[in-house]
Amino acid sequence: MNKKTIRDVDLKGKKVFCRVDFNVPMKDGKVTDETRIRAAIPTINALVEQGAKVILASHLGRPKGTVVEELRLTPVAERLSELLGKEVKKVNEAFGPQAEDAANSLIEGEVLLLENVRFYPGEEKNDPELAKAFAALADVYVNDAFGAAHRAHASTEGIAHHLPAVAGLLMEKELDVLGKALSNPERPFTAIIGGAKVKDKIGVIDNLLDKVDNLIIGGGLAYTFVKALGHEVGESLLEEDKIDLAKSFMEKAKANNVNFYMPVDVTVADDFSNDANTKVVAIDSIPQDWEALDIGPETIDTYRKVISESKLVIWNGPMGVFELDAFAKGTRGVGEALAESTDTYSVIGGGDSAAAVEKFGIADKMSHISTGGGASLEFMEGKELPGLVALNDK
Ligand SMILES: Nc1ncnc2c1ncn2[C@@H]1O[C@H](COP(=O)(O)OP(=O)(O)O)[C@@H](O)[C@H]1O
Ligand SMILES: O=C(OP(=O)(O)O)[C@H](O)COP(=O)(O)O
C-alpha cells in the first residue's frame, strides 16, 4: 500500500480522529456480532500505546441524517470498553461544544467514542463544513474503517483534506490480503453474491463477470434475476428497475463462458418470521403472497459442489434470512462447504456474512473474513476507494 499508516507518524500527545466501522448488528440495544469491534482493536491499542488521545467515530445503520434513538453508539462503547479492558468515554454528538469538551479533556491513552456520524445530513453528502467540524476536534486523522472506505462521506473522505491523514492497521491488512488474493487468482475462481443490498451489489456483478469462472447468486438479490428469467417471485425482494440489468448479466456470463448459478429451488414463507408456514418450491413456482427467504436443498447441494471444486472463493451476502433459524440452511450450507474445503482460499465479505459464519461457529475455518462487504467488492472490482485515496501518500 502506498499510503502512510499510523506507523509513519508520531502520535504522542496528539488528538487523533480515528474513523472506524462499528456498523454492527444489534438487537434490543445489544451488539449481536462484535467482529467489527474486535477488528478495530489492534489500531486502537496501537494508538493508546503511542500515547495518542483517541477519538473514535463511526456510523451505525442508515438513520438518514436524523437522530434515531436505537442507532446511538452507546451499546458499542460499552462492549468496546469490555473488550479493551479500559474505560471508553461516550458523548451524544459527533462535533460541537460537547464533543470538543470531551476531546479536549482526554489525557494520553484515553479513548472517546463520538455519536453516530450519520445523525447529521452532511455526513453522507460529504459536506465540507461538517468535515471541517470533525477535523476541528483533532490533530491527525486515521481511517481504519475499511468497511466504509467505498463511501465518500465527511468522516471517511472530506475530513482527510483538513488534517494529516493516515491509514489504520485494519485498513492496511484488508488491502494487503485482498490484493494478494486477486493479483493472480487461483482457479477455479468463484464469487458468491447474496444478501439484501440489491442496489449496491448488482453493479459489481458486471465486473466480476470479467474475472471469475463461476458466479453463484443467492439471498434477496436472486429474485431480480428470477424475475428476469420470466418467473413470478410473489412477495420476494425485487428491484423492478434492475431486471433488465440482471438479464444483461446473464447474457454476459454466457458470452464470457462464466458458469452462472441461480437457485433452482427455494424455501418460501407466508410471513417474515420463524413461525411462518414454509415450503420448498421450484424456482418457477413461487406462489403469489409468499416470499422466498432461503435457497432450497437442491440448490444448496449444487452450490456446495461448486465450492468444493474451487480454489478461490469470495463470498459476499447471506443466501437467506439466516438470522431466523427457519431460513438459515442455505447460508449454513455454503459456510460449511467452505469450512470443509481446506484446499479453497475463502474470503468472506460483509457484516452480515461475517456474522453468519460466526453464528455457525466456522469463522476460524475461513481464510480471511473481511470487515467490508461493499468495500471489498468494490476493491476487487478494481474501483478506487475514496476513503483510501484521500489519505496521504508515503
Ligand atoms: N431472500 C431474502 N429475502 C430478504 N432478505 C434476505 C434474503 N436473503 C438474505 N437476506 C438478508 O440480507 C441481509 C444481509 O444483506 P447485506 O447487507 O447485503 O449483506 P452483507 O452485510 O453480508 O454485505 C441479512 O440481514 C439477510 O437476512
Ligand atoms: O455494513 C457496511 O457495508 P456492508 O454491508 O457492505 O459490509 C458498511 O458499514 C457500510 O455501510 P453502508 O452500506 O450503510 O454505507
Automatic annotation (TrEMBL):
EC code: 2.7.2.3
Biological pathway: Carbohydrate degradation; glycolysis; pyruvate from D-glyceraldehyde 3-phosphate: step 2/5
Residues with the Phosphoserine modification: S183
Gene3D superfamilies, alphabetized: Phosphoglycerate kinase, N-terminal domain
Binding residues annotated for substrate, in chain numbering: D21, F22, N23, R36, H59, L60, G61, R62, R118, R151
Residue positions binding (2R)-3-phosphoglycerate: R36, R118, R151
UniProt xrefs under InterPro entries: Phosphoglycerate_kinase, Phosphoglycerate_kinase_CS, Phosphoglycerate_kinase_N, Phosphoglycerate_kinase_sf
GO cellular component assignments: cytosol
Coiled coil location: none
A Pfam entry, by short name: PGK
UniProt-annotated binding residues for ATP: K201, E323, G350, G351, D352, S353
Chain positions found as Phosphothreonine: T299
Recorded family membership: Belongs to the phosphoglycerate kinase family.
Protein's recorded name: Phosphoglycerate kinase
Gene: pgk
